[in-house]
Amino acid sequence: MSATPVRFASVDALRGLTVAAMLLVNTPGDWSHVYAPLLHAEWHGVTPTDLVFPFFLFIVGVSIALGVVPRMEAGVERKVLVRAVLWRATKIVALGMALHLLAFWLLDRPQFRPWGVLQRIGICFAAGGMIALYLKPRAQWAAVVTTLLGYWALLAPWGYAPFEHLPARVDTALSGHWLYQWDPATGRGQDPEGLLSTLPAIATTLLGVRAGEALRAGAVKSLAVAGVLAVALGLGWAPSFPLNKALWTSSYVLFTTGCATLALAACHLLVDRHGWPPLGRRFGINAIAAYVGAAVMTYVLLGMGWMGPIYQAGFAGWMTPRFGPYVPSLAFALAFVGVWWLIVRLMDRQGWYLKV
């Protein structure tokens, strides 16, 4: 096992495909006409879209195993790595807050939302990095098991109905009407990236750390077996603890992490061992630039009132009479991803990489 940071083209490719999927599902031309697989499950259940965010957090954990841990093994002082991890996590969280502030300003939203995707990524990176630096593998596994079982024990007495579950109650007490969803009639809200549901998301990241260690060791068969086992455990747990992204349930952690582990094993075999082109690599090496840049572009276009006219003129106006309303909505999302592929391709050719 290498004691220096390792870069696998397969990991860059998988990260990039995940970012591209994020842009695809976040930017339809018309939210009223989106194919079902490109929408989140209404509550319980999993669609392909519900795999995207856990895949990214899983890859965050893989990156910790490939970048942070080898530096410690190579002799870099732990306190130096701790500062680096916490500083990077802080910047990611601050970037997420800045994005939400921009949306609050440009889109005239009724309140500022403190929680979000980048905020959760930053918190999970910090927690995953600290645990990887201070705990041995057996203790990391114990942390995962304890978190998943403990989260189940916490939520079970309250049930899993919308706005009634424990994470919603905790988030309402902490953030009130600043949450992603708020019901003024009941005075309750909920947020898919809230505080309590971040605990099992950290478990997702830790499972990524363990998968990254297996990748470093070349144990691709172990990855495949672990992926199948995690999917089976998640599905087996689902009848009593439903698959649910908004709650980030423990069954959801196992199922989605199993899928991500199988995807990582497949990418490693195809790209690293058999020489397939690393599709998505350019998105992967500039993941933050693509995600943040796409969000800023979306907010600006919406805030300036240009998004609707662009969609009507370029897509819906001539496509809808021929193909119906769903095709132009998807075509717009694909075009948006294509624009950002051109941008990250140019950045790669120029050697421009946004490091956070």
Summary keywords:
single chain; 356 residues; mainly alpha; two-stranded antiparallel ribbon; globular
Number of helices: 13
Structural category: mainly alpha
Placed side by side, the strands forming the largest sheet appear as 1-2
The biggest sheet amounts to: 2 strands, antiparallel
Strand content: under 5%
Note the overall shape: globular
Number of strands: 2
Low-confidence stretches: none
**Quaternary status:** single chain
Share in helix: 55-70%
Order of helices and strands: HHHHHHEEHHHHHHH
> Could you tell me the mean pLDDT?
96
Question: What is the alpha-carbon Rg in Å?
Answer: 20 Å
Note the gap between the termini: 27 Å
Structural domain count = 1
